[in-house]
């Protein structure tokens, strides 16, 4: 019983901070997107493709979450309007970003100069589903080489997603990935989700994703 009370207290405190983060985003009319995936699914490539498509008329900030390195932040630095790195090593919640970390990042971002903030969460399909960051949209990326059974193994994160990106679609002829089975499994968990099969390498499907993303922020 005591453990349950402690965990509930942590989640309640996180929710309160997340609400404050969302108010900051809203006050600046800035859309926040939490991008989650397993390691190697292509989060950073996906962010770079998104920035490339939007950069002509959208000011984009990126919050990079990683356990120790700054590799992804360095890749994004020259393309985004602003980048903040968060390293979670040594923190109790090292397997995911939490609202307190985003709160600190927001203090370092030029929020008045941004239209969109992309949050690259730590590579993990379990822990990130536990913590609201104050984002407006949750996006889960899976890749075709990972197989189509991920929704069965990690149902919570797929049940919360606003959009599911099926990355590395150019590899479909060469890997064992059943698109229909995958989509059916996700829809059984989450009937409202939107799917985007795409390839960050070839650009296939990226325009459809960006068009949808624009539609999520009508004020912009």
Order of helices and strands: HEHEHEHEEHHEHEH
Class from helix and strand fractions: alpha/beta
What is the average per-residue confidence, as pLDDT, rounded to a whole number? 91
Strand order of the largest sheet: 3-2-4-1-5-6-7
Second CATH tier, the architecture: 3-Layer(aba) Sandwich
CATH class, anyone? Answer: Alpha Beta
CATH-defined topology: Rossmann fold
Give the CATH superfamily.
Answer: P-loop containing nucleotide triphosphate hydrolases
Radius of gyration of CA atoms, rounded to a whole number: 17 Å
> Would you count the extended β strands for me?
7
Beta-strand percentage?
15-25%
**Helical coverage, percent range:** 25-40%
Main β-sheet, in a few words?
7 strands, parallel
Q: Tell me the distance between the termini.
A: 47 Å
Low-confidence parts: 1-6
User: What is the overall silhouette?
Assistant: globular
Number of domains: 1
Give me the number of helical elements. Answer: 8
């Amino acid at each position: 019983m005591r453990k349950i009370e402690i965990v509930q207290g942590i989640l309640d405190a996180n929710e309160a901070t997340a609400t404050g983060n969302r108010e900051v985003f809203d006050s600046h009319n800035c859309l926040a997107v939490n991008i989650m995936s397993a390691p190697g699914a292509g989060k950073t490539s996906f962010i770079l493709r998104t920035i490339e498509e939007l950069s002509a008329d959208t000011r984009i900030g990126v919050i990079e979450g990683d356990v120790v390195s700054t590799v992804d932040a360095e890749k994004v630095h020259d393309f985004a309007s602003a980048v903040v790195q968060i390293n979670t090593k040594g923190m109790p919640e090292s397997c995911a970003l939490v609202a307190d970390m985003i709160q600190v990042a927001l203090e370092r971002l030029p929020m008045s100069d941004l239209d969109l903030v992309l949050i690259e969460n730590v590579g993990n399909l379990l822990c990130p589903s536990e913590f609201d960051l104050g984002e407006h949209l949750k996006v889960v990326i899976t890749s075709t080489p990972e197989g189509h059974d991920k929704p069965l193994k990690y149902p919570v994160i797929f049940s919360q997603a606003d959009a599911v990106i099926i990355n590395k679609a150019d590899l479909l002829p060469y890997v064992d990935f059943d698109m229909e089975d995958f989509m059916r499994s996700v829809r059984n968990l989450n009937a409202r989700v939107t799917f985007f099969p795409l390839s960050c390498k070839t650009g296939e499907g990226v325009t459809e994703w960006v068009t949808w993303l624009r539609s999520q922020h009508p004020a912009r």
